[in-house]
Amino acid sequence: MKGAVLESLGKINIQEMERPKCGQGQVLLKVKTCGVCKTDLKCYERGQHDLELPRILGHEIAGIVEEVGAGVDLYKIGDRVQVSPGIPCGECDFCKRGHDNLCDDVKIIGFNYNGGFAEYILIPARGVQNGILNLIPENISYEEASMAEPLGCSINMQEMLKIQPKDTVVIFGGGRLGILNAKLAKLQAASRVILIEVDDRRLALAKQYEFDHIIDLRKVDVLKTVLELTDGIGADIVIPCCPGYDAMNLSINLLAKKGKLGFFSGLVAEDNNNHLDLNLIHYKEIIMYGSYGCAMRHTKAAIELIAKGDIQVKDMITKIISLDELEEGIKKVKNLEELSILVNF
Length: 345
Known about the structure:
six-stranded parallel β-sheet
């Protein structure tokens, strides 16, 4: 089979390799599509604390069951499946409560195990047993199913925020996660969703999606504008879908008293030129929720939302590439050239 191996930081080698053998309790998938995301960019450029090299990256995977090992009865050859990339222990308190993304012994496909940038991927027995494979309904494509992982991350965030119909929601960043969060907020009947962005291409693209107001941070006083839109109260919910400290600081300032902050994107240390005004959390009684990745139930919920037509993701897939073009695709992610880039096999 052909696979894209990250040999060292900044070096991917497309090579022929032996197809994995399917053992007891395991499932072998023929990969149909795998999304390229900012986490892949981070792994490619800087690594990641769970990443073990050499490694095949890719964790937004949809494929078809090629083989099943002895003892596997939940899946059969020919099943269309989406992969929830975290493989939890299934036994700890977090796993039992449905928070398997917080399992201390979670192993991640694309970090600890080879991922989806290859023609075949072997799903370990622990992953099969714990249910990381979601059957894909016939009415959605592999491409749409591969979007379940980023949508699942957004569901995890908004599950905690509990958006109400009267709420004003501000989102920093008009990339795919910003758009997915906007789609979910509108599904919950948020009264208005406001985008704050600085990239010209994303500002233009945002007009196609579920934003009621689009603000160019470079051209207006954002705090003044949001206060005007909310009768001087401020936003009920702010979700920074970007890793900058400046966006986090502004998010805290935009929130109304008793507002809710969705800490959705981790902060990048080298961007810390200004301290965070955390005293505002105290004075305004701001509620902050952190979210990390998604649990298996979130990707399952994402598949259901896509299948029912409640969330449209097809309109966000802007670039299809081959495996040979993977490094080019990663560079496009870095340069913000596309919303969603998928490797198709």
